[in-house]
Amino acid sequence: MTSTPFVSYGQNAEDVVLYRALGDLPTGRYLEIGANDPTEDSISRPFYDRGWAGITVEPVRSLIDAHRRERPRDTQVHAVAGRPGVDHATLHEIPGTGLSTTIDHLRDAHRAAGLTAMDVDVRSLTVDQILEEQGPGELHFAVIDTEGAEADVLAGFDLRRWRPWVLVVEATVPNSSTPSHGEWESRVIDSGYRFCLFDGLSRFYVAEEHADDLQELLSTPANAVDNFVRFREVEARELANTLTDDVVRWRAAALSRWAEVVSEGDQERETAKTLALREELDRTHRTLSWRVTAPLRAFRRMVAR
User: Fold this and answer.
1) Is the pLDDT of residue 166 over 70?
2) Which residues 6+ apart lie within 8 Å of 192 measured at CB?
C-alpha cells in the first residue's frame, strides 16, 4: 500500500529534503530566520504540523502576528537578525510580498520594478542573542532566508557553539539565479559544516558530527521518490471537490424545482416559479464563480511576487 504523500509547503520543496533526513525523529526543534508567512512557502510548517516547535524570527509586524495566531507552540521573535553591535535596522518593507529586505540596493531595485517599499525601524538582534534568550536546546535544523542579508545573519551566529544539525541558507541574489554564497560560505565551512546540496535557490550543510548519518540523505533535491505533493496542489484538489459537490447539489435542486414548475397547470404560477428558479440559478452561478476566481486571483498575486 502506498504511504500518504508528504505535503510540502516550501517554496522550492526544501522541507522535503529536510524531512527525508530528519523525518524519523518523533519531535524536534528548528530555527527559521526570515520566517515570512506561517504557512505559504514555510519550510518549517510541515514539521510544526507533526508536533515539532521552534523559534521563528521575522521583522515584518503583520507576519509575526500571523505566526503568533497560527502557531502558538513556536516562539516568535519580532526583529531583524543581524550583525553584532547593531541595535536597530531599517527594514525596507514591501507589503504583500516575501521581498522585504535590509539591503538598500535591493530596495532600490524593487522600487525600479514598480513595487512599493516602506522604511520601518526594527530592532536588530544577533542569532546568538536570540538563542541565549531562549535557552539551551538541540537545534535540528536552521533556515536563513533574509533577502540578501544572509552574510549579516551568519556574522552574528556562532555555529561552533549552537551546532544545528542541518543548515539551509538562501544562496542567490533575490529574484535571480545569481549565486551569493561567496559572501558567507567560508564562515560556514570553517565552523565545521559540510556542503551537501544546492537546489537552485538554497544551499544545504550538515554539521560534521552528523555527516555520516545525514549527508547522503541531504545530497539530492526533492524528487518523485520522495512521494510528496505540494500544498497548493492539495488546496486545488480540495477546491475542485467542493465545487463538484456544489454543482451536484445545484443540479439536483434545479431539477426538483423545474419538476414543480412544469407540473403546475396555472400559467401565472408557472411563470412566477420559472422566474424564481432563474433567480436562484443566477445566484448559484455567481457564488460558484466567486469561489473559483477568488483563489485564482490570490494564486496570481502569489506568483507575481
Assistant:
1) yes
2) 159, 160, 207, 208, 209
